Amino acid sequence: xxxxxxxxxxxxxxxxxxxxxxxxxxxxxxxxxxxxxxxxxxxxxxxxxxxxxxxxxxxxxxxxxxxxxxxxxxxxxxxxxxxxxxxxxxxxxxxxxxxxxxxxxxxxxxxxxxxxxxxxxxxxxxxxxxxxxxxxxxxxxxxxxxxxxxxxxxxxxxxxxxxxxxxxxxxxxxxxxxxxxxxxxxxxxxxxxxxxxxxxxxxxxxxxxxxxxxxxxxxxxxxxxxxxxxxxxxxxxxxxxxx
Length: 243
Hints:
alpha+beta, Alpha-Beta Plaits, four-stranded mixed beta sheet, disordered C terminus
């Protein structure tokens, strides 16, 4: 078995660089340190790497093996969720409340959060520059669910989601998958497989396969401008769109 090297130490403020993520340690840790500058964050996602760490620690940069992804033909929508989509109980919007979604993802996570104040500040900068996006789920004027992530070309790297109403985060996820792939996204990354995400159709692929996909997808120009119009049309008929 090939031995993984130790994580590389990055200096804050330096030229953004990352080691080869295929050389991550056995836990998927690629590097330690650096900063959350726009340039470093964008390079990370283009390289198949993301930050994830706790308060009081330097940034930790990860590329796990295997990697959780959702493919449109694998998206699973239960009967109860199909009913929710048909009833139009929720309104789903795009990029209307990015920072609120991030803050609610941080506040409503059990056992603490890795979505630290400096991460909210940095991803808000990405959003202002058009690189990070959110899907919001509303009941009337109340924000009851949502998700956010980073886009690099045909890659969408989902970071976190939350809900205050039953099925609200699932609605955000389903509508995001439908709309993003309709716009030309080819790789929808969710980082890790969980039982909850697995119930929606998320599967795992080897890191080497994921990195090859990232290399291609991140370089393809994709505009998400049509997303809001797609959301206004409502969900595609589940019998044709989902399996």
